[in-house]
Amino acid sequence: MRCLVHDLLGCTASVVPDKTALICGDCSTSFAELARSVAGLARTLQEAGVRRGDRVMLLMDNGIEMVEAVFASLAAGAVFVPVHPATKPEKLAFLIEDCAPRVLVAHRVLAPVVRAAVPSGHGLSAIFWAGAAVPPQPAIARLELTVDEAAAQHDPPVDPGLIDNDLAAIIYTSGSTGAPKGVMLTHRNICNTAWAIATYLDNRPDDVVVCTLPLSFGYGLYQVLTGVRVGFTIVLERPFVYPWHLLNTMATHRVTGLPAVPTIFAKLVQLAPFNGLDLSSLRYLTNAAAPLPPAHIKRLREMFPQAHLFSMYGLTECTRVSYLDPARLDDKPESVGKAMPNSEAYIVGEDGRRLPPGEVGELVVRGANVMRGYWRNPQATAARLRDGDTAGEKVLHTGDLFRMDEEGFLYFVGRQDDIFKCRGEKVSPKEVEHVLCELAGVAEAAVVGVPDPVDGMAVKALVVPKEGATLTESQIKLHCRARLESHLVPRFIELRAALPRSENGKVRRGALAQAAEAQSR
C-alpha cells in the first residue's frame, strides 16, 4: 500500500477536522485548517515552477508556518530541505549550491543571511517569506511573497504523481571532513519511521507533545510527523527555551509527552521540585542525541514517577535505531535498548561478519528506515551503504562502535570518526578548525570533545599561535561566535606551542582527546 507523507495529514484532517493540530504561543490551528493552508501553499509552489523532485529549502524557526511549508513542499511533489535558522551565510551558500533548490522559504528576520548567501544567477524561482511583509529591499528571486499570501490560494495542488519510493526530504548532517552531507529520505522511509516511533511510544490521539527540538533536525521533525499520523496535538516552542517557561507550558497544556536531549533534562533536574506546577499529565519522556547519565535517569524517575522514560539512539541516516523498554531501566540503565519495529541492528567486525555478544564492533542497521544515500555523493554513500546478508540489500554501516549483551541489548561504546554531539547537535571538528584557522595569528588548531554533564560533550579547541602573535581566549571566542552556530563555539581554549603528530605527519587527535578528557575530570 502506498504511503505518502502529506497523505497522513489529509487522512487525519478528514477524521478529526476540528482537533487542534498545532499550538505555537498564542496561535493554534486545527488539522482541517492546516490541511487547507498546506493545499494553498502547495498550489502556489507549483505555480512558482516547482515540479516533482525539485528541492524546496526551509530556513525557519519552529512554528506553524514551518510545518505548513514541510507538508506543502511534499504535496507539490517537491523534496523539502530543512536548514537550522542559526546557519551562517557561508554554510547556507554551500547548501544552496549543493542541492540547488527551486524555492526558498525563510523567515523574514533572516533576510540579511539569505541575501548574503544567495549569489546572483542562483536559479531560485521564488522566495516565500514567513512572518509579516516581504522585506522592503531589492528582490532576490523573480517572485517574492509571504507564506500567508501563498497559503490563501483556493485551488488545490495538481497531483504530482508521486510514489512512496520518491524522495521526500534531504536533511544535511556534518561529516568527518566537515562538509555537510545531504541524507536522502523517501516517503517510505519517513512513513515507516513515524509508524515505528508511534508504535513503541504507544502514541494516542489524546496525547499532547511539547517540542522544543529544532524542526530542522530529525528528532524534532518526527514529533510533528508522528503527531500528524496519529492525530495528537503538538505544542511548538523555540529550541532551548527557558526551563521554567517550558514547565509552565507543560502544565498549561496538560502535556503528556516530553522529547528532549540531555542538556534540557540536566536543567530540569536542577530546578526540581516544581512547586505550584501540576505536571501529573506527563506519561512519557524520550531522550536521544546522547546517553543520559544514570544519576539523571534516577532523578527524572523520582521527579515524574507516573511517566515512562525511553532512552533511544539514532542518527540522521536512518533517523532512529533503537529504544530501551522503560521496564528494563533498572537492570539496563546504560543500554539504548533494541532495534525499533520493522528494523534490525547488529554488530560486525572489521571483516564485516557478525560478532557474538560482548565483542565491540561497528553497528549495522537494516530496515525501511535506512536512507536512500547521500545527495550527489556516491563515494560517501558507498562507504555507508554496503551489501548485507540478504542478496541485493544495502545495509547502513553507522560508523559507531557498539557491543551487544546476551539478551540482544545494545550499548554505545564510541565513534569511529571524530564527530561528537554537543547539546544534541553534531559537531564536526574540521568545521570549527577551519574557522579558527581563518583568525589572524592562528597557525594551527585542533578541536576535540570533552565530557560534560549538561551538554553531553563540550567543544575544546587547542590553538597554536603564529610566531610573534598574541592571542587571547576572548578574541578567539568572539571570532567563533561571529562565524559558527552556538553549539560549535569552543567552550574551552588551550594555547599550545605545537600539536602532537604521528610519523606520517597527521595530528594525533586521539591523544589530544584523551588528554583533554583527563584534564576535565
Fold topology:
Layout: H1 5-15, E1 20-24, E2 27-30, H2 31-47, E3 55-59, H3 64-75, E4 79-83, H4 89-99, E5 103-107, H5 111-117, E6 126-130, E7 143-146, H6 147-151, E8 167-173, E9 181-186, H7 187-201, E10 208-211, H8 218-230, E11 233-236, H9 243-252, E12 257-260, H10 262-271, E13 284-287, H11 294-303, E14 308-313, E15 322-323, E16 338-339, E17 343-348, E18 361-367, E19 373-374, H12 378-384, E20 385-387, E21 394-404, E22 410-415, E23 420-422, E24 425-427, H13 429-437, E25 442-452, E26 456-465, H14 473-483, E27 492-495, H15 509-520
Parallel strand pairs: 1-11, 3-4, 3-5, 5-6, 6-7, 10-11, 12-13, 13-14, 26-27
Antiparallel strand pairs: 1-2, 8-9, 9-19, 14-15, 15-16, 17-18, 18-21, 20-21, 21-22, 23-24, 25-26
Features:
521 residues; alpha/beta; 5-stranded parallel β-sheet; 5-stranded mixed β-sheet; globular
